[in-house]
Design a protein that fits this description.
Elements (H helix, E strand, L loop, with lengths): L15 H8 L4 H28 L2 H15 L5 H12 L9 H29 L1
């Protein structure tokens, strides 16, 4: 069984694993550290976006969406990154952002977190 790629990865438009490895300088320990940061930060950012939408906190919304956009750029295709970009661009008017858009952004963030966790776990196992 090929442990480097899941069947689901074959449907992705780019080799996100190679992209993340490139950001880590092809160093496994660095990849694990980047993945850990991603896995810690992304759920927090989604929570902050949801909180900011509810409270109307445009500054928090813009900052969280911008940071999530940056995190997603490590692995995700432009289509997924654009979900966070849309929120950032519309942060001054959070009531214009459809709830379905926020739900989709949270789903995408969760999906990428699951993928990054899998790669992190596989890479960390090779470090041992």
């Amino acid at each position: 069984m090929d442990t480097d790629h899941s069947e689901e990865d074959n449907d992705l438009p780019s080799d996100w694993r190679a992209q993340l490895r490139g950001h880590s300088g092809n160093d496994d320990a660095t990849l694990v550290a980047i993945a850990n940061a991603f896995l810690e930060e992304v759920p927090l950012l989604v929570h902050r976006i949801e909180q900011a939408i509810r409270s109307g906190d445009t500054r928090l919304l813009r900052t969280a969406a911008h940071t999530l956009k940056s995190c997603l750029r490590y692995v995700a295709p432009d289509e997924d990154v654009s979900l966070a970009s849309h929120v950032e661009k519309n942060a001054e008017a959070p009531n214009t952002i459809p709830e379905s858009h926020i739900v989709r952004l949270a789903e995408v963030a969760q999906l990428w977190s699951e993928r990054v966790k899998l790669l992190r776990d596989e890479t960390a196992a090779n470090l041992s």
